[in-house]
Amino acid sequence: MLKQTDYISKNYDKPDSFKLALYEASGGYRAARKALAMPREAVVEEVKKAHIRGRGGAGFDCGTKWSFMPKESKKPHYLVVNADEGEPGTIKDRTIMERNPHLLIEGCIIGCHAIGANVCYIYVRHELHLAKERLWGAIAEAKAKGYLGERPLGKAFPIEIYVHTGAGAYICGEETALLNSLEGKRGEPRLKPPFPAQAGAFGCPTSVNNVETVAAVTLALELGGDAFSRLSALHEFNDGGVRLYGVSGHVKRPGVYEAAVGLTLRELIYDLGGGILGDRPMLGVIPGGSSCPILLPDELVHVPGDARFAPYEGKSVLDLPMGVDTMRNVGTMLGTCCAIVLSDEADPVLACRNLMAFYKHESCGQCTPCREGCGWLDGILDKIVAGKASLEELDLISEVASNVSGNTICAFGDGMAGPMLAFVRKFRGAFEDYILNGGQHQTRRLAL
Amino acid sequence: MAFSLDAEREQELSRILARYPNKQAACIPMLHLCQSANGNWLSDEVIGFVAERLDLSTAHVKGVVTFYSLLNDKPTGQHQLWVCRTLSCALRGSGDILSHCEKRLKIHAGETTADGNVTLQTAECLAACAGAPMLQVDQTYHENLTLEAVDAILDRLTQRG
Ligand SMILES: Cc1cc2nc3c(=O)[nH]c(=O)nc-3n(C[C@H](O)[C@H](O)[C@H](O)COP(=O)(O)O)c2cc1C
Ligand code: SF4
Ligand code: FES
Question: What is the ipTM of this complex?
Answer without folding.
Answer: 0.97
